């Protein structure tokens, strides 16, 4: 099993014809993702040829011709798509997500960085009003991967393998590092939720899914300074999660009151500090590492690897 994304997922790419969209569509195809279409109203009816890049491990890929549709709705009707990856510039991202929600697609992975918080709040509220039929991951995130099955986003497909660790992370870079450090054990799924002040899928959403997944034995949760998402996740873990959870909180050396990296990473007084989050997680029974490498070691010890 996997959470949110499987080998059966049929993925479209909004913004596939742009430079970033083409580059990462090529990488997703090389990872085995079933890309069934792209969306660009100005290029509807055309196709984009991808040259069959080598898949992870060195095997040659198969050249693929991907059709471009005028809307998410048209793409879904023609292909049965159930997931979309959004590589649309920030000023157009709100409309792209709303289009995906209106079409009723099951999963929308918003890679775009720099979306105005007001726009994210708008499309998230819109999705809620529509009954939360579309799971939004992001924005400003690396996406999610189920190794050996499917990859929706920009996570390198060749840094890990399938296994029994679940990973949920605010940080894209730390997602990659943790996957690489534990590559010999492997992952059931890894979800980069993004670090903006307003996001769709949260730590809690991923923890709930990993708890229900019989193929996940342990969860690694990566947070960072700012806000109270990790404290809320700690409360959820204490009440609802029976599987072992290992955590890491980025930002122990961040100065008070200064935004660090992600727009959501800002500390006010004792609220939102790495230490406060570490203490909340440890009170819930989570083993917390002081560095990513120590966190990986704790996970390895719990799995006996």
From the structure above, extract its key features.
22% strand, seven-stranded mixed sheet, globular, 305 residues, Rossmann fold, alpha/beta, 2 domains
Overview of the molecule:
This protein folds into two domains: 11-137, Rossmann fold (3-Layer(aba) Sandwich), CATH 3.40.50.720; 159-303, Succinyl-CoA synthetase domains (Rossmann fold, 3-Layer(aba) Sandwich), CATH 3.40.50.261. Mean pLDDT is 92; it is low at 55-59. It has 305 residues and is an alpha/beta fold. The strands form two sheets. A seven-stranded mixed sheet has the order 3-4-2-1-5-6-7, with helices on both faces. Strands 9-8-11-10-12-13-14 form a seven-stranded mixed sheet, sandwiched between helices. The relative contact order is 0.12. The chain has helices spanning 19-30, 72-79, 90-103, 117-129, 172-181, 203-212, 229-240, 274-283, 292-303, and strands spanning 11-14, 35-39, 47-50, 64-69, 83-86, 107-110, 135-137, 143-146, 150-153, 162-169, 187-192, 218-224, 245-250, 287-289.
Q: What is the top-level CATH class of the largest domain?
A: Alpha Beta
What is the name of the CATH topology of the largest domain? Rossmann fold
Q: Count up the domains.
A: 2
Report the strand count: 14
CATH architecture grouping of the largest domain: 3-Layer(aba) Sandwich
Strand order of the largest sheet: 3-4-2-1-5-6-7
Largest sheet: 7 strands, mixed
Order of helices and strands: EHEEEHEHEHEEEEHEHEHEHEH
Distinct helical segment count: 9
What average pLDDT do the residues reach?
A: 92
CA-based gyration radius: 19 Å
What do we call the CATH homologous superfamily of the largest domain?
Succinyl-CoA synthetase domains
> Portion of residues in helices?
25-40%
State the secondary-structure class. alpha/beta
In percent, how much strand structure appears in the residues? 15-25%
């Amino acid at each position: 099993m996997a959470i949110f994304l499987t080998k059966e997922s049929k993925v479209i790419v909004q913004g596939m014809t742009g430079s970033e969209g083409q580059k990462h569509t090529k990488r997703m195809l090389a990872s085995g993702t079933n890309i069934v279409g792209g969306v660009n109203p100005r290029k509807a009816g055309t196709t984009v040829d991808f040259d069959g890049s080598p898949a992870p491990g060195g095997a040659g890929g198969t050249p693929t011709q991907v059709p471009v549709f005028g809307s998410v709705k048209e793409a879904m009707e023609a292909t049965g798509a159930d997931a979309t990856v959004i590589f649309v510039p920030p000023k157009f991202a709100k409309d792209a997500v709303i289009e995906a929600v209106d079409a009723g697609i099951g999963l929308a992975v918003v890679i775009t960085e720099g979306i105005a918080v007001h726009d994210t709040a708008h499309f998230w509220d819109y999705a809620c009003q529509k009954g939360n039929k579309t799971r939004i991951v992001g924005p400003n995130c690396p996406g999610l991967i189920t190794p050996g099955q499917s990859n929706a986003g920009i996570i390198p497909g060749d840094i890990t393998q399938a296994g029994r660790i679940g990973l949920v992370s605010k940080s894209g870079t730390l997602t990659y590092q943790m996957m690489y450090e534990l590559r010999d054990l492997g992952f059931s799924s890894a979800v980069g939720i993004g670090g903006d002040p307003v996001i769709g899928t949260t730590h809690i959403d991923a923890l709930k899914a990993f708890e229900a997944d019989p193929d996940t034995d342990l969860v690694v949760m990566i947070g960072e300074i700012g806000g109270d998402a990790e404290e809320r996740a700690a409360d959820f873990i204490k009440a609802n999660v029976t599987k072992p959870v290992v955590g890491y909180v980025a930002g122990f050396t961040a100065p008070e009151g200064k935004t660090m990296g992600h727009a959501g990473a800002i500390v006010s007084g004792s609220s939102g500090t790495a230490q406060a989050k570490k203490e909340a997680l440890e009170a819930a029974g989570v083993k917390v590492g002081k560095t990513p490498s120590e966190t990986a070691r704790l996970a390895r010890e719990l799995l006996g690897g």
